[in-house]
């Protein structure tokens, strides 16, 4: 019997309670500001709308970002200096402005070219642009925020590639994500499409805990990789892009309604962008719980794949517990919030399912 882990749930509840409050306040402030900008779009004019959207909204969100950063530092998750955090924030703002110019400019051009039928080509363009961003994310966008490298030869690389071969899943590249210089949290992910697909394992994931051997840390990394291989095998990125297309349709429908009702100069003008942004936000929010529910379904499938591949539900459960403790995750987050927004099942559900698979396996032997 392995010793019970300290899952730090008192800290996790306190941390996540404040984090949620910061998130709620940021969302409400942003929505109220967007409503105000939409109402004042005629008075603001072209230049005023651009400044309000590109500068005003990010500045409004800055205090909430600072609060989130300070909270992460207080609980030992963030390892960044204030200067490093501000630098990352500025880089993110720069990327956001570029993407905003592309999206906003493209929308205006489509509205002028398609007239009253603009929502259909706008939806098609948004879906195509989302696919392009997904493909470019690991080679263009991710390197702006985090460094990564091919996993160097050694025990970790041997374990990772052996896991991929055992799974029989073709993997183009395994990369080590340099998260440790910025955060104590650990993670792994599949990113990219087609030739850009890469599987990332954070360097923090392979860091042994104080009560853990290097061999145990490697084992934890392997079962987490098994989960990501499940996503890769089942082409979950493509599945989620398809679901995102439905969500985008709801957002575009909201934008169409808002532009028709609220844009002072009608479609095809910069002054329509605030109402389009407001309508898209509200339309997407209506279907976001269904998108989250589907994402949780895919996470359950990837968990089941990882357990079936290794036949070690207890090992996978212990790995999840380590991640809960390290990332200050709540075993039982607030039910309504989780149902509406969470992309993963609750940690308690995932851990219980992994251990139940061991029980079913043992029962099947008798």
Description:
The chain is mainly α and 366 residues long. The protein has one domain (9-147, 234-364). 72% of the residues lie in helices and 4% in strands. The protein has eleven helices and four strands. The chain has a four-stranded mixed β-sheet with strand order 1-2-4-3, with helices on both faces. The radius of gyration is 22 Å and the shape is globular. The model is unreliable at 361-366 (pLDDT under 50).
Question: Any descriptors?
Answer:
mainly alpha, disordered C terminus
Could you give a quick summary of the protein structure above?
By secondary structure, this protein is mostly helical. The chain has helices at residues 9-39, 41-74, 82-114, 119-145, 155-167, 214-233, 236-262, 273-310, 313-327, 335-341, 347-364, and strands spanning 148-150, 174-177, 188-191, 198-202.
Distance between the termini: 22 Å
Tell me the β content.
under 5%
Low-confidence stretches: 361-366
Largest sheet, order of strands side by side?
A: 1-2-4-3
Total tally of structural domains: 1
Shape category: globular
What is the helix content? over 70%
What's the total number of strands? Answer: 4
Task: Reconstruct the topology from this structure.
Elements: H1 9-39, H2 41-74, H3 82-114, H4 119-145, E1 148-150, H5 155-167, E2 174-177, E3 188-191, E4 198-202, H6 214-233, H7 236-262, H8 273-310, H9 313-327, H10 335-341, H11 347-364
Parallel strand pairs: 2-4
Antiparallel strand pairs: 1-2, 3-4
Helix pairs in contact: 1-2, 1-8, 3-4, 4-7, 5-6, 6-8, 6-9, 7-8, 8-11, 9-11
